[in-house]
Amino acid sequence: MAKKIRIGTRDSELALWQANTVQKKLENYGYQSELLPVKSTGDIILDKPLYELGITGVFTKTLDIAMLNNDIDIAVHSMKDVPTILPHGIVEAAVLERANVNDILVHKGVEFLDDKGTIATGSLRRKAQWLHKFPTHNVVDLRGNVNTRMQKLADSDWNGAIFAAAGLERINLKPENYINLDWMVPAPAQGAMLVVAKETDEYCKEALRHLNHSSTEICVHVEREFLRELEGGCTAPIGALAKIHNGIIDFTGVLHSLNGTQKIEVHKEIKVAERLNFGKNCAQEILNNGGRALMKEIKEIMK
Predict the structure, then answer these.
(1) Does residue 25 carry a pLDDT above 70?
(2) Among residues 134, 141, 139, 160, which one has the least CA distance to residue 261?
(3) Mind listing the pLDDT tens digit for each residue in 220-240?
(4) Total-model pTM
(5) Which of 213, 276, 297, 301 is deepest in the core (most CB within 10 A)?
(6) What residues form DSSP beta bridges with 180?
(7) Nearest-CA neighbor of 148 among 43, 263, 17?
(8) Are 113 and 212 in contact (CB under 8 A)?
(9) Which residues is 178 bridged to in the sheet?
(10) Residues in CB range of 61: below 8 A, 6 or more apart
(11) Active-site residue 73, yes or no?
């Protein structure tokens, strides 16, 4: 029997854009739905760095609880915010086609790049990669939704702040004064949207199958498998990017120390048909090449 699908989402402009995108796609296939916005812990507590909030699922936990309580039927997330292990009873139902994977620097002039400057980001990964390339710079914490962070940058004396290009592009907030950071390895699943549903909800899972983008799903699963094996979550500077060309997965993964001085990188290719455990094996190469000791050091510092 047809039912109206209740779509849970965070209430930021970007999250609502994502949820509306899913709603429109469902309507194109003849499904009725409604949006139910909620605030997550990660949106409410803005005076602490992300890694101090217990991290895992800080942006998704509220929606997980709402789904398990049967208050919503599906939830739409930026996939890079989603823990690599979902709560019991909740499953991935669709990975939408990926947008721009890159990070960008929104700046107030680039003269500082060759000297000293202050950059803002709430991401350990972005901070570590920036300091690896620009060790004389200062990196400060920046929290809040995309709109809030852009305003904080405008109101500050910082030289710039780092954002995911996809987020700014989706809500037409990408300014003219930016630099594409194509040297920065993005977060696993950056630029991808994930829709989750209850494992027992066959109606919603069937509806969402129409929205799944196969090649994006393959790539982000390799990246998230790499992340899970490194046991990073959001608490370590881990980057990963998989791309498919002519049936070949091209993968780059990187682990940095928190201050950016150490960098361990892996770059491998494999046929799509042979991808089983590919992300895990790439992570093992990192761990065996000094990553195990570095992860132990990071966990000690983060305690």
Answers:
(1) yes
(2) 134
(3) 999 999 999 998 655 899 999
(4) 0.92
(5) 213
(6) 104
(7) 43
(8) no
(9) 106
(10) 40, 41
(11) no
Catalytic residue among 73, 81, 103, 201: 81
Which CA distances in Å does 203 have to 77, 85, 136, 211, 218? 20, 23, 55, 14, 24
Which amino acid appears at position 13 of this protein? E
- In terms of Cβ atoms closer than 10 Å to its own Cβ (0-12, 13-18, 19+), residue 148 is middle
Whats the size of the chain, residue-wise?
303
Closest listed residue to residue 205, CA positions, set 94, 97, 98: 94
State which amino acid sits at residue 101.
Answer: V
How large is the C-alpha radius of gyration of the chain? Answer: 19
